[in-house]
Amino acid sequence: MNQNTICAIATANGVGALGIIRLSGAEAVKIAQRCFKGANLEEAASHTVHYGYIYENRELRAGSQEQRTESKEPRVKSQEQSARNQEVSAEREIELIDEVMVAVFRAPKTFTTEDVVEISYHGSPHIARKILEVLVKNGARLAKAGEFTMRAFMNGRIDLAQAESIADLIASENETSRKVALNQLKGGITNEISVLRNDLLNFTSLIELELDFAEEDVEFADRTAMNSLLQNLRTKLRALIESFQYGNALKNGVEVAIIGKPNAGKSTLLNALLKEERAIVSEIAGTTRDTIEEVIHLKGTAFRFVDTAGLRETTDVIEKIGVTKAKEKIASAKVLLYLYDEQDSTTEEVIAFVKEFHREDLKIVLIHNKVDLTNDEIPNEFDRILTEELFPDYCDQILRISAKEKTGIEAVKNVLTDYVENLKDHESNVIITNQRHYDALEKSLQSVLQVEEAVRSGIHTELLAYELRNALEHLGEISGEFTNDEVLGNIFSKFCIGK
Ligand code: GDP
């Protein structure tokens, strides 16, 4: 039995009009033929589709494995034939499982580069299970998560970044994440750095050649040209790294924390943004106890809101959990909407809060809520003091809204979409969306900087060669040229079975 031909359901779980089971491996066509009634698949040309039945050829009692009887009828005991072969045979029965279309794709022009067969059946999970059982009985084995894509990578059909983009495409929820993933599948990031990587590889070879001629004190690698290449590489890597903030926002959304004292109107604002009553709004201070995550999509970006417990000091145990979570959420948030009700706050409180939570990578927006209750000039004394104390070092915006009357809500949305617009300000043609790529790029940049330093200080050629190898290795991690089983296992285990 050839354990290298794998099979799995390729379509989604559950009932559908049709489902697809895919086989890949050297024996794919042979195995499919063993349970297919219709055209001769083994003689079929590549990329052709064939009508027929998947059947099970069952043995009714022990006997020869060789005998196989086929019939157009769903259940026919092949007694006549068994009588003919009495000395070696057993009674067999043919059971048709489903009427199907079978597509044959021959190596190497397939997703995995191996022979691939796709069986389209009537989309019942029960039928799917039966077909898989028959395929396994006939020599295939069930695929592991991501195994088809892993084979495509192992067989050189796609690089690692492309393999990851397939998972991203499957997971894409909106136009932007779909486009970014598709661009990566087309080789975006790999193309972007492969030219520079190849140039660096050439220099590395020359430097290593110098090592062979160490006695003679010759320089094969033109140091000026090498410097300009390194500089070029550094600029490109920086641009790619900078694009990650934007890429990550597109792919995973932007985490937004709504923070403020109990009763400041956080739940009311969240509801106004969501336009539906999901969070519990209550007049009793501190009732929004746990964190609730809600998502809205604005201009193709997902904003993940976390409605949190109030930030007041409290002795209530349950609420304390909420307060801790609020602090955790601020730690991972990119935008913080700080809501205050002037009648229940002091400027000192707001200022102290903003100064405590201020971070380079956190945009803080002050939101003066309940303006429907007061009718004073804009900005009033309260906001003027905040502006004086906090602008521009800690924050640069105060929005005046009435969450209850739904005024100023558009301005809140604009703050969010502007935040993402500003992230677009990077020099790269390709947008990085993957944390693994980001980490590899960071490491590459560090080693390029080290190589530059090494060239500048004129260190020993041997050490320079070592630094160059490091840089090449990190650059190669993205496309998977340098990788290890742990990294691969980690990537492909996140795929679904059948992909
Ligand atoms: P949270 O504890 O910060 O989540 O506050 P809530 O959203 O539960 O609001 C507390 C109370 O303030 C509720 O009675 C709301 O109806 C009220 N409230 C919220 N926003 C406004 C507003 O803009 N104007 C007025 N007048 N009341 C508001």
From TrEMBL:
It is found in: Cytoplasm. It holds the Pfam family TrmE_N. Keywords: Cytoplasm, GTP-binding, Hydrolase, Magnesium, Metal-binding, Nucleotide-binding, Potassium, tRNA processing. Residues 253-421 form the TrmE-type G domain. Mg(2+) binds at S267, T288. (6S)-5-formyl-5,6,7,8-tetrahydrofolate binds at R22, E118, R157, K499. It comes from the Bacteria. K(+) binds at N263, S282, I284, T287. Exhibits a very high intrinsic GTPase hydrolysis rate. Involved in the addition of a carboxymethylaminomethyl (cmnm) group at the wobble position (U34) of certain tRNAs, forming tRNA-cmnm(5)s(2)U34. Homodimer. Heterotetramer of two MnmE and two MnmG subunits. Belongs to the TRAFAC class TrmE-Era-EngA-EngB-Septin-like GTPase superfamily. TrmE GTPase family. HAMAP family: GTPase_MnmE. This is tRNA modification GTPase MnmE. It comes from Kaistella solincola.
